[in-house]
Amino acid sequence: MSALLGVTPELKERIRGHSTLRRFLVIVVTLSIAFPAVMSGAFLIYQNYQRTLELDSKEAAMNYADLLQAGMTMPLWEVAPSLGQPVIDSLRLDPSIVAIDVVDQQGNTFLSYHNPKIDEGFGVIQFQRAIEYQNSIIGELNFTYSLADAQRQATKDSELLLIVIAIQLLFSLACLSYFLNQRVISPLNKLEKAAAGIAGGDLRTSVPQLSGDEFGSLSRQLETMRWSLERSFTHMEDRVAERTAELVELNKELNSTVEQLNATQGNLVQSEKLAALGSLVAGVAHELNTPIGNGLTVASTLNDSTKRVKKMMEEGITKNALQDFLEEAEEGSGLVCKSLERASELVNSFKQVAVDRTSAQRRCFDMLEMLNETRMTLSPTLKKTPYQVEVDCPRDIMLDSYPGPLGQVITNLINNSIVHGFDGREFGCIRIVCRKDENDMLRLIVEDDGKGIAEEHINRIFDPFFTTKLGEGGNGLGMHILHNIVTGMMGGQVVVESKVNVGTKFTITMPAVSPNYDHANDGTGGGFKVNVR
User: Fold this and answer.
1) Cα 144 to Cα 98: distance, rounded to the nearest angstrom
2) Per DSSP, what are the bridge partners of residue 472?
3) Listed residue (266, 201, 193) closest to 520, CA to CA
4) Considering only CA atoms, which of 396, 490, 402, 489 is closest in space to residue 435?
5) pLDDT tens-digit readout, 484-523
6) Starting at the edge strand that comes first in sequence, how are the strands of the sheet with 124-133 ordered?
């Protein structure tokens, strides 16, 4: 039953992990109460501390200074320190007074008091007042007041306020935790246990009936879900058996269809290779036509000249005529020899290409020669178009690989550019660049300046039967065969880059020495033997 429900250890762990909701709620609620309480408490403590330390102390010090300023007027005017001493003695009872200095108009000390027990490290307040009598300055008062007692009193008040806030906060959190546990956490625990039992496959697990709040509604929904699941799974086995039988029959039909598709694909790939061979034969006929035609023309001319000279010899030939005939014969025979040599070279070249293409033979070959031979086989097609094919390849790149399939790869890429990249264009250039690095890896780049590939198509170009020319002569196998050859037979990889209206670039990376490869069922259509003599 657990398997039918799709319950996995990860799901069970996730269900148990829902208990973290409790921690989350506690954290949120705690922060929502504790943070404002701490911030407001800190602000109140700071305000109380500052008020006690500055306002109260400053007010007391100013009152003392006013009292001394008024009380020293007459003693200074009468020059009677004994009259002002009682005022100073009365203020000495306040231990926060640090120093009192009264000087006369000449700057001489009139009365003075200094408290030796005061620690000035707590900070002091100083006042300097002029003492006047009848609008004349008769002396000066210097008064220093300590903040030590004020700081101690402010500290006590702050500690008391902090204790009150902490008690209030703890009480609020305790009440909140109690009600949160009763109304949220406890119902969640009960629902979690019931949900875990249902998820574990026990559909007879009872769901507790909770109060009429949201948890009560959720418990009723869970009970309804449990009942529906239990009723559904009662008939599940029969339905699964029925569906399994249908799937088995459908699987047989699918296997038959896949076999037919594979056979069809093989036939299409074989047709593709036959079409390539037909193109090769057309190239042979086209390229041989020129040297053979030239040789035939020269031979016919020599034949006519020989008949003419023979007739002249019967009638009497001059030395100049004989000399002209010999020069003409020498020049003509040279042209015939060159034309036959060219035809022989072409036959040998096409013979090698035909053997490579039809038998997938592995051999050592020069990359530049293979590229030129491939371009030559495409010359009938290229001469009918305004497009150019440029080859940039050093002469010293030797490969131990399969020249036939590699030539087919290049042919497919060139044809792809002509058919798709340059469709409807009056110009175009295909550039083939080949290099070999120090790791004996070959890097082959075939790029064009055509229309490019749409972004939605670029990830599907190697899929079999995918083509944008469906019904217009395309079968969607060219790029698929290319991919299978490069990644399978050549042991390499192919990467495509394209931008719309900019061009397309295929980069093929493969070892110079191909790995051993089994040609059976390689997805390239195999090979067919052709005897070329």
Assistant:
1) 5
2) none
3) 266
4) 396
5) 889 988 899 999 999 998 999 999 999 999 888 765 545 4
6) 109-114, 97-104, 136-146, 124-133
